[in-house]
Amino acid sequence: MNSDNDPNYSPLRDVAQNPEATARYLADVQRVLLDIGKNLETLAQEIRVHCRDTHVEGDRWFDAWLRAQPVEKAFKDVLKNVEAVTKGLEKGAYKRRAHDEAVANTARKRKEKELEKQRKKNPQPLQAAPNPPQQGAQSQNHGYGGPTSIYDMGNRESA
User: Fold this and answer.
1) Packing angle of the helix pair 19-53, 63-121 (nearest 10 deg)
2) Per residue in 60-82, pLDDT tens?
3) Region for residue 10 given its phi and psi (left: phi exceeds 0; alpha: psi -120 to 50; beta: otherwise)
4) How far apart, in Å, are the Cα atoms of 150 and each of 139, 141, 142?
């Protein structure tokens, strides 16, 4: 595709169509976000030190700490959101690849399903098992494979 020919051309359209390109792009974005996260962590620490050290005349020993808490919480929330975004990028790349694999396997699964339907509609005739030659009298086996009920014991005694 070329941007000169298509007014609706988007470079991310090509990236979105290829799972490997999507994974590479999201990994690059994630790397940038992780760098930004490191800088934000450093900034949060510096802000914490500055805000807790800012005392006004007449403050009790904990007043500066109390004033710093909302600022520290705001930066902590920002850092948590950056971490959530980076995890979401990983998950998105995984889901994108899984989608392509599912699409590739759909045709095969449909064929298998159709074959299974055909087998159910037209079952193959089962061949009868060959009968063993029977002798006139059944032999009694007094071993463990014997009777299964106390009524079938015949002349055997129970334990």
Assistant:
1) 160
2) 989 999 999 999 999 999 999 99
3) beta
4) 19, 15, 14
